[in-house]
């Protein structure tokens, strides 16, 4: 009995004196401002007091949606709050104190993945997708990929392009904890032969980008 008591006491002492490993910080969320509606988005317009007017509509290529009583309304370029205010003003001519909620049920925003991965191309964006998840969705790394280095190209609201480099250890751990992607981000995986990332990014943008920067960053 004394042996077991002493053994348990030593385990408790070791547990109290050991320092737990720090958990990795979560990926930083991009600062993208309020989401602005664009063609292809699925918009749900709901009326609190007049549910018979509820409409689920896809924004057409001309940026408009069709609504009951008031007809066509330009939705493209508005935030949800802005479109709600526009609709409230328009419906005030038909209803008394309309209460309207605008919800995006499906986003047309895309992200792009290119470089030395299995399935380069465009993929649907959602607020929770990270660069590493996007690469996994695109089939993962090719044998020629530099898995320790990932580049994210992003166009900010001020029009300035950002280059975000994610460096990973040989065991696959991310030193920069990965990053959440913003709409129209371009994730690129260089080959193992790339040594100067800044030079490579410049060459990639000028010569090898698969789609025009205007198409990629049209959302900003």
Note the main attributes of this structure:
single chain; 220 residues; disordered C terminus; 5 helices; alpha+beta; 5-stranded mixed β-sheet; 3-stranded antiparallel β-sheet
Helix and strand topology:
Layout: H1 2-17, E1 42-47, E2 55-58, E3 64-67, E4 71-74, H2 80-91, E5 100-106, E6 110-115, E7 121-124, H3 131-137, E8 149-155, E9 161-167, E10 186-189, H4 197-208, H5 213-216
Parallel strand pairs: 6-10
Antiparallel strand pairs: 1-2, 1-5, 3-4, 6-7, 8-9, 8-10
Structural class: alpha+beta
Number of helical stretches of at least 4 residues? 5
Shape: elongated
> Approximately how much helix is present in the residues?
10-25%
Number of separate strands:
10
Question: Mean pLDDT, rounded to whole units?
Answer: 79
Outline:
The protein is α+β, with helices and mostly antiparallel strands and 220 residues long.
Report on this model:
It is built from 5 helices and 10 strands, in the order αββββαβββαβββαα. With 220 residues, it is an alpha+beta fold. A hairpin with a 5-residue loop joins strand 6 and strand 7.
């Amino acid at each position: 009995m004394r042996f077991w008591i002493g053994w348990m006491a030593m385990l408790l002492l070791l547990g109290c004196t050991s320092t737990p490993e720090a958990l990795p910080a979560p990926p930083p969320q991009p600062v993208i401002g309020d989401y602005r509606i664009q063609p292809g988005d699925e918009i749900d317009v709901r009326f609190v007091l007049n549910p018979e007017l509820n409409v689920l509509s896809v924004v057409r290529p001309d940026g408009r949606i069709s609504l009951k009583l008031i007809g066509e309304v330009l939705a493209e370029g508005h935030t949800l709050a802005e479109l709600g205010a526009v609709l409230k003003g328009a419906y005030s001519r038909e209803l008394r104190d309309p209460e309207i909620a605008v919800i995006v049920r499906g986003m047309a925003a895309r992200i792009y993945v290119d470089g030395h991965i299995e399935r380069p191309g465009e993929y649907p964006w959602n607020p929770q997708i990270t660069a590493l998840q996007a690469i996994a969705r695109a089939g993962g790394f090719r044998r020629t990929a530099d898995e320790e280095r990932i580049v994210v190209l992003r166009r900010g609201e001020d029009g300035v392009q950002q280059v975000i480099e994610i460096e990973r250890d040989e065991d696959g751990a991310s030193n920069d904890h990965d990053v959440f992607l913003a709409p129209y981000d371009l994730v690129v995986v260089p080959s193992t032969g790339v040594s100067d990332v800044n030079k490579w990014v410049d060459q990639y943008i000028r010569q090898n980008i698969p789609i025009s920067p205007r198409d990629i960053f049209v959302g900003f």
